[in-house]
Amino acid sequence: MAGQRIGSGCRVGIDAHQIPAFRGSEMAMRLLKLFTSWTLIMMVNGTLVASATTLNAKPVPEMLFERLDGSSLALSALQGTVLLINFWGTWCAPCLKEIPELVHLSRQYKTRGFEVVGIAVNSGPPEDIRAFMRDHQMDYRVLIGEMSPIKRHFRVVGFPTSFLVDRHGIIRHCYFGPQTEERLKNDVESLLE
């Protein structure tokens, strides 16, 4: 299913027209768009079907994350690189579906100044995260984060959630739910030009 943009730059993992309650209903689509300045999450049989928030080209929040070696890193230290910041968890089934897509995307654009940065949220000690990364062939940078400050600074309410950040540290796109390499490619390429 193709993703759909709602609001200014947010992409949901499913087309709202695929939801029976929205099919053929202009009123339902208008109501969905009305909520673009807030986060909206709807669950159908336990599956995230829509989520949106308005983006007004804001800088990445200043926050320190723990590296797997125990040292700290601020995302601002990565300015000059196009980043896909991906909030995920080892416990998150939709995240598991998305990981191979991010591995491919990272490998495809790494030499052009693009980097995937995974933020493992409430996923255990570094040795458990390293083992998970090995098992899933994750060769991109992974940092460790805690739920409470991430929710406060990034307003993440579900997993996976990703932010595409330009070379100047400005968030340009946000994505809720698992994304595919194909869905992310155009947005990444536009920031690499």
What's the short version?
This protein has 5 helices and 11 strands; from the N terminus they run E-E-H-E-E-E-E-E-H-E-H-E-H-E-E-H. By secondary structure, the chain is of the alpha/beta class.
Overview of this protein structure:
With 193 residues, this protein is an alpha/beta fold. It has 2 domains: 4-50, no CATH class; 64-192, 3-Layer(aba) Sandwich (Glutaredoxin). It has 5 helices and 11 strands. Helix 2 (93-109) packs parallel to helix 5. The longest helix has 17 residues, at 93-109. The chain starts with a strand and ends with a helix.
List keywords for this structure.
193 residues, alpha/beta, Glutaredoxin, disordered N terminus
The computed structural class is alpha/beta
CATH topology heading of the largest domain: Glutaredoxin
- CATH uppermost class of the largest domain: Alpha Beta
Give the CA-CA distance, first to last residue: 27 Å
**Net shape:** globular
Number of domains: 2
Within the largest sheet, what's the order of strands?
A: 1-2-11-10-7-8-9-5-6
Beta-strand percent range? 25-35%
Task: Detail the poorly predicted runs.
Answer: 1-20, 31-54
